[in-house]
Give the backbone structure.
Amino acid sequence: MKTLSPPPGKPFDRLVIAVEADVFRSRQAVGRAMDRLGARVIRRTRLVTAVSEIFRNGLVYGGGAEVVITLDEADRMVWVDCTDQGPGIADLELAMKDGYTTGKGLGRGLGGAKRLVEHFEIHSVLGEGTQVRLAGRA
Amino acid sequence: MSQSAGLYLVDEIMLVAIDEDINDSDIVDLQDRLAQRVHDTGARGIVIDVSALEIVDTFVGRIIAQLAGIGTLLDSPTYLVGMRPAVAMTLVELGMTLPTVRTARNLQHALERLRATQ
């Protein structure tokens, strides 16, 4: 799978999601990045909620994930890349739809996460994994 | 045992305080403890307090809906209290409005409503 070019800004944190507690730990790190930019509560809440969905997907469906957080102070943006080496998503368009789930979730995770952020892109290759990049403005 | 949620019986009402780091392995245990204690104590109602939660994602939303469903089946009306404004706004955008879950502004308000329905 091709690697995404690095987002603008400087590295803030890098975490590995291997167990459930890591989802919590990683989304807290995203919250800290938003705090660093002095984000309003609603903007912080939106991004942290969106990444929580994505991180949990990375753990449950991807078998674990790597998270890279980048801080763009000039543009007041927090960028989050979440990469897993799971089975990949067969039909991305379908996966983005509300109501779709292959697991026990509510099927609102991916589409919902996209609505909550400024920037959302997802790349998936069957048998190789899935990369999600999100960004929220502080 | 779950450390991610507390159960307290107050004035015949079962209070459930959900912590921010609740995870999948805690849920079945929490459901089990809640159902058993409601049954054992004959609690008149359940109040789920989410004021500790900085965010509610679809995972935690599902937990809340399940707990409320258990309460309803046990004839123990369930109220959700303490949701932060930013959390409510975000949940609506996620498309998760929890239509089956009754809400109250705060614990006091929930207790008043539960007393009124007896």
About this structure: Chain B is about 45% helix and 20% strand.
